[in-house]
Design brief:
The protein has 7 helices and 11 strands. It is an alpha/beta fold. The strands form 2 sheets. The protein has a 7-stranded mixed β-sheet with strand order 7-6-5-8-9-11-10, sandwiched between helices. It is globular and about 50 Å long.
């Protein structure tokens, strides 16, 4: 994709959490939230790693594990989950109606259409932080990608997800042996320690090299007991 390619705005919405914009740049799509670049369709390796690493970290012998994906984004994580027959229920929590619409009736359908049609897939239109604190559902894996990372949140309210109370809510929503996987645009040793302090075990970070700058990462941890 030429660096000089100018983006074209396809849709712009004002929602309860601010402005979200879908742009097309050459052959790729971009999602911008409150003026902050969230993600695009130019690569997707780290979004797929989010799903693959969580599945690989689950204890052997777990049948049809249920996964909650926090953030629909451009759909790469959902598509990866739907491609894997071992997953059972696939729940995607997305707070922006605009993003859901772009996938269901808009241009992002070309990416996520088959995954959305998968009978295992369920889209829940709500705020992830609120959902984790109010639902009684439990999952074998939480794969969260709603910010640029624990140290770079899209909205101020999201910060509570990475706090002690937010991590406690994540832990409560996991089955014993369940895996928490959190995407980030940069490593965070402070977040690793926060997961340990919250009682998670097997805390580690997997990296995906990028063309320039620090690598994208997936922070992983397990609920024991």
């Amino acid at each position: 994709m030429p660096a000089s390619t100018a983006p074209v705005t396809l849709d712009r919405r004002e929602g309860p959490f601010g402005e979200v914009v879908l742009r097309e740049r050459g052959d790729d799509f971009e999602i911008i939230a409150n003026g902050c670049f969230l993600m695009d369709t130019s690569d997707g390796r780290s979004e797929r790693l989010l799903i693959d690493a969580a599945l690989a970290a689950l204890p052997d012998g777990r049948t049809a594990p249920a996964v909650l994906i926090g953030g629909l984004g451009v759909g790469f994580s959902l598509v990866r989950a739907a491609e894997e027959e071992r997953w059972g229920r696939i729940v995607v929590v997305e707070r922006e109606q605009a993003i859901i619409d772009w996938h269901r009736q808009g241009p992002l359908d070309r990416i996520s259409g088959p995954a959305l049609a998968d009978p295992r897939t369920e889209i829940v239109h709500t705020d992830l932080v609120a959902h984790l604190r109010t639902t009684t559902e439990r999952y074998d894996a939480l794969c969260l990608d709603i910010d640029n990372g624990p140290d770079w949140t899209v909205t101020e309210d999201n910060g509570s997800l990475y706090s002690a109370t937010g991590l406690a809510a994540c832990k409560e929503r996991l089955t014993p042996g369940g895996v928490l996987a959190v995407w980030s645009a940069q490593p965070s040793s402070a977040f690793e320690q926060a997961m340990r302090n919250a009682g998670f075990s097997a805390v580690r970070t997997e990296e995906v090299a990028v063309a320039r700058g620090v690598p994208d990462v997936v922070h992983l941890a397990m609920r024991t007991g």
